[in-house]
């Protein structure tokens, strides 16, 4: 995952695909996929200030809530709390940010 500041911003095509993969993982119905994304996403992701990163904030909040409400013993609760703690300042900075909506699975 992208966790270090880059001298050059990533290619916009890369970011589009990266955000799509993150969105799919964070909204996945598979709890194991969700747990993996939350466990391996450092809170420093939000402070990289990648173009368009705020579009995933709603996904991270919903995903962290699902992890915290999970009854799985191996759920990454500490990581979910850390992510939520990292997002505390964002409502003050970004009042009306656009958010992605969960992808509805075809039945």
TrEMBL record:
A GO MF term: GTPase activator activity
Which InterPro entries would you find in this protein's record?
Answer: Tuberin/Ral-act_asu
Q: Which GO terms describe its cellular component?
A: cytoplasm; nucleus
Which top-level group of life is the source organism from?
Eukaryota
* Protein name from the UniProt record: Uncharacterized protein
Species for this entry: Sphenodon punctatus
